[in-house]
Amino acid sequence: MTQTPDEIFVPIAEVVRAVGLRGEVKLYPLIDWYPPLLDTDYLIWENGDPLRIDRWRPSRNGAVIGVAGNERREDAEACVGMRIGFLRGRYRDAGFPRPESGLPFRFLGRPVVTVSGELVGDVTEVRLYGAQFTLVIERDGGEILIPAVEPILAADSECEGSLVIDPPEGLFDVN
Fold first, then answer.
1. Which domain covers residue 22, as residue numbers?
2. Alpha-carbon distance 55 to 137, whole Å?
3. CB–CB of 85/91 below 8 Å?
4. Per DSSP, which regions of 20-149 are E strands?
5. pTM here?
6. pLDDT tens figures, 18-48
7. What DSSP state is assigned to residue 171?
8. Domains contained in the chain, number
9. Which residues, 6+ apart, have CB-to-CB distance to 51 below 8 Å?
10. What is the rounded CA–CA span in Å between residue 121 and residue 139?
11. Residue 173: enclosing H or E segment and its boundaries?
């Protein structure tokens, strides 16, 4: 059975350990981490099961959450290694919380073209360097790294279609 693009799971965090005795778990943030999502009904487990977070608090690098149904440490330990996230299609919902600049998952797999129409390639990965996302395009046995910032990358809030860039002179030479 083939998934449609809207059914693709977008992970935001991984459960890395049980915390305390009340069934809480520690989340390690992934690239699409956005804490306001923890207060919504959009999140699911990677196996598609619904996830209801009863409570959460920020933790050093991530969050500690209490999951409905997890009452004991053993319940929490059973979650270690699992990821939480949302279905890609839900991102378009009017009430979906997103940062002003959007979440980086939406760049993956999309073609990148220059303002003059030259195809650069498809985005194979999104990396975070400091506070800036960088698009990775494999080409000619190497990588082209494109900062996902204006004015290099035209503003884009979509999940499909081409991404348009206006690369400064030498950007492709540096990579």
1. 5-92
2. 39
3. no
4. 24-29, 44-45, 53-59, 62-67, 83-87, 111-114, 119-129, 132-139, 142-147
5. 0.85
6. 999 999 999 999 999 999 999 999 999 999 9
7. H
8. 2
9. 43, 44, 45, 67, 84
10. 7
11. helix 171-174
